[in-house]
Design goal:
This protein has 306 residues and is an alpha/beta fold. It contains 11 helices and 8 strands.
């Protein structure tokens, strides 16, 4: 069950029931023209086409297959970010920057706080200024972990942080950049179940979902984000240009497959508006708290099955 929440001046509520397993056409995976148009129309992403894929170079065109397969590979993004080493560094943001949604983030930071501070995870941060901007702007203490699997991107961000350290919005706030696969963070210190009150995904699942792997990489990313999310007050935010009619059923089905169980993850879609002529949405995922009695019932059911 998911619902759509619009702007305060034009709030609408849409309910859907059941789960829909997405076919590739939900994400334009079989339509090269639509796929390339979606990439090209984003400022800056047209340059990614020249770097993505195993056959990519400045002299060669990249096929839609190379694009879909390459967007989920560290080597693709290493190649893309490597050019920034040669010139003046500039942050690269998918879709839009922090300022476009800063006001929308405030209640989630407050709501996800525990013991006076909110632990925030930015998955697939690349060289975006998103996590660092939240660290600078938040008046509430935040502990921001920016994770990416591209060593080039992480090295660039760490260098910027050392050379031009941003001033925190609160003296107790912390910021760190980590080289890690956002789909496999288990076992790392600070990445225990329910460790984060706010998980941010701006374009990371969108990139993984276009990989030619049947959606496995995208589902792993979502499952790991939900594992790390604190039940109840925590929120996982996905920013995307995909319409809720396609994304919400996919999120519900993927969350159920991840082991959360049907109905245990609430999905809400909020329309953010248009940026550079493209409509964007914020998808809010919350995990329901499971009480001890429900855990006991599940254990009893398992014993009966045995």
């Amino acid at each position: 069950m998911w619902r759509r929440a619009g702007h305060a001046s034009r709030v609408s509520s849409i309910s859907g029931s059941g789960f829909t397993i997405p076919c590739p056409t939900h994400h334009n995976a079989t339509c090269p023209v639509m796929l390339l148009n979606r990439v090209v129309r984003r400022a800056g992403l047209a340059r990614a086409i020249a770097w993505c894929g195993p056959q990519a170079s400045r002299e060669k065109h990249m096929s839609p297959v190379d694009l879909r397969e390459g967007m989920a590979l560290p080597s693709t993004w290493d190649r893309f970010y490597a050019e920034k080493r040669a010139g003046d560094f500039r942050h690269f943001d998918w879709f839009f920057g922090y300022s476009a949604v800063s006001e929308q983030l405030v209640p989630f930071v407050r709501g996800g706080a525990r013991d006076g501070a909110c632990h925030v995870l930015d998955v697939g941060c690349g060289t975006s200024d998103f996590g660092a901007s939240l660290y600078r702007a938040s008046r509430l203490p935040v502990h921001v972990s920016c994770v990416d699997f591209s060593p080039v991107a992480v090295e660039l961000m760490e260098r910027q942080w050392r050379e031009r350290p941003p001033a925190p919005g609160h003296p107790s706030s912390t910021l760190r950049f980590m080289l890690a696969d956002a789909a496999r963070l288990g076992g790392l210190p600070g990445f225990e179940d329910g460790a984060f009150g706010l998980v941010l995904d701006k374009g990371t699942v969108d990139a993984a979902i276009r990989a030619n792997d049947g959606g496995r990489a995208a589902r792993r990313l979502l499952a790991e984000g939900l594992r790390l999310l604190r039940p109840g007050c925590g929120a996982l935010l996905q920013f995307s240009d995909e319409d809720p009619d396609a994304r919400c059923p996919w999120l519900e089905e993927a969350a159920a497959v991840a082991g959360e169980g049907p109905g245990r993850v609430a999905v809400t879609a909020r329309e953010l508006g248009e940026f550079r002529g493209v409509a964007y949405y914020m998808y809010v995922l919350r995990k329901q708290e499971v009480d001890d009695d429900e855990d006991d019932d599940d254990d009893d059911d398992d014993k009966k099955k045995d």
